[in-house]
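Running co-folding for D-malate.
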Amino acid sequence: MAAAMKAVVLGAAAGGGFPQWNSNAEACRRARAGDRGAAPRTQASLAISGDGRRWFVINASPDLRQQIEARSFLHPHQGLRSSPIEGMLLTGADVDAIAGLLHLRERQAFTIYGSARVLGVLKDNPIFGVLAADCVRRETVSLDRAFALRHVDGSDSGLEVELFDVPGKVALYLETGDAPAELAGRPGDTVGVEVRANGHRLLYIPGCARMTEPLKRRLAGASVVLFDGTLWQDDEMIRLGLGPKTGQRMGHMSVSGSDGTIAAFRDVAVGRKILVHINNSNPILLDDSPERRILKEEGWEVAYDGMEVSP
Ligand code: MLT
Ligand code: MN
């Protein structure tokens, strides 16, 4: 089946969303006031489909319920109870990647795909038992091995998917110490998703602590890349008085700077480069910011909720 991949950003913000509930910073105030240059964004998630009817959602953001209601293609279309959502793919066990699973607890059949590490976190947390095992299948995905994504009825979605490890971090609430090796986590704690259909490749990487040569090789030639845009500068949360942590400490590379995302992608040829998982402190959220102009000059787009990113 020659599927035409469809992909739509459900949420473009990092954990906390934009505006964040307890932020009174100027950007969040602009977003609340309905300023057109500061569009609100829900927490990061991407919907993908091979037929435009049945969908898979990458990451279950705490805003998932709102994201479903905002997109008519995710509304039930058949019978009294149904959903076009056939599966959820998880890139990590952070709150902003898994909490939304709790919205899906109404005895609807779907499949949760994730690494052994991430599915282990769900298994160890009894609250996820609300997703009844006789309805919701959990499928452990091996890293670096492509597989055909299937609908609940077993039919092929036409999408081929591969999860791959990226430099990242164990989930904040699972930190046991501050030794760098422990914080960095183990393979499968932070993954990227590669989706292939019809000769196109889309990569979704909402968290990445640094660029590596293997990652560059994987990115090269992709049609669309959605990449970690959490912070503009590594110490931006500290400088703005918002928190004690650098981006690096949170497992995110910054967009600017010599080790940043813009610099890292200069010698990587990809079709579309789009920043996602953007923290409310990042000035790229504001259409009129100088940082936004720099991104444009560098060929980067900034994701927003509802953005169509089909290859
Ligand atoms: C992150 O992306 O660093 C996490 O979502 C942070 C968090 O869990 O709040
Ligand atoms: Mn996050």
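Result summary
The two ends are 17 Å apart (CA to CA).
The chain has nine helices and 13 strands.
Job closed.
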